[in-house]
UniProtKB/TrEMBL annotation:
Protein name: ABC transporter ATP-binding protein
Protein keywords: ATP-binding, Nucleotide-binding, Transport
PROSITE patterns linked: ABC_TRANSPORTER_2
Function of the protein: Involved in beta-(1-->2)glucan export. Transmembrane domains (TMD) form a pore in the inner membrane and the ATP-binding domain (NBD) is responsible for energy generation.
The keyword Membrane is assigned to this record: no
Species per Swiss-Prot/TrEMBL record: Bradyrhizobium aeschynomenes
DNA damage as UniProt keyword: no
Domain ABC transporter: start-end pairs: 5-247
Gene Ontology molecular function: ATP binding
Amino acid sequence: MTAILDVRDVKKSFGGITAVNGVSFDVQEGEILGLIGPNGCGKSTLFNCILGQLVPSAGEVRVDGKLVTGQRPSELNRLGVSRTFQLLQVFPKLSVRDNLILAGQEHRGSMLSRLLGPSDAGLTTTADQMIGFFKLEHLANEPAGGLSCGQQKLLDAAMAFMGGPRLVLLDEPAGGVNPTMLGDLKERLIAINRERRATFVVIEHNMEFVMSLCSRVMVMAEGKVLAIGKPDEIRANPAVIEAYLGH
Ligand SMILES: Nc1ncnc2c1ncn2[C@@H]1O[C@H](COP(=O)(O)OP(=O)(O)OP(=O)(O)O)[C@@H](O)[C@H]1O
């Protein structure tokens, strides 16, 4: 079976720093892969190399077998790949619904959407479905800036799903989210994974969240893959315990 995402020997250097040093892994459709590792080990750089924010210094990235190395984010969006960012990308003055509509426009690749602001473009129905799915009904008309951090993370995740993506890369979705909202977020992500067969790669520092959400976990250390396996295997891996979990 062709992997939905296939990363082969990707490297990325910034001057003298090798942030990602020959990383290979693949993700099958319907999987939730966790990506963990100490600060500065190269997780975000790897995401940026996969999603076209950065061009890798070496290596190849394939989506559904198609070579996409170095292609622009808008091109990846068209192939059904989407992402969230570590720092939220919501527009604080726009309502929750308008943020979703704008995200839908961006997934369609309309470059001017950020300048022109949201126009319905037939996206209100999809936005309202996402609002329902992520249980944000009571907040639909509120400015996004007034939402709690956890609610904004839910909105951010909902925005990533506006284009009906097959593969979503989530960058620290649990960061700064309180335990109650965290449970909601996990439950919604699992539901969207099951109901839509959406595939995820999730960078996260919250170990409990990763281990309970993900089908497999990849551990990075100093730009390389230290281990990849099921959560229980990762928890029991001596190299992982020494390099990361033990600290
Ligand atoms: N644009 C850049 N220019 C120079 N160095 C960079 C750049 N981006 C990242 N780095 C360096 O690359 C290394 C990996 O950083 P990266 O942000 O990918 O790690 P990370 O695992 O995502 O960290 P965190 O968990 O803190 O988000 C670090 O040493 C960082 O300082």
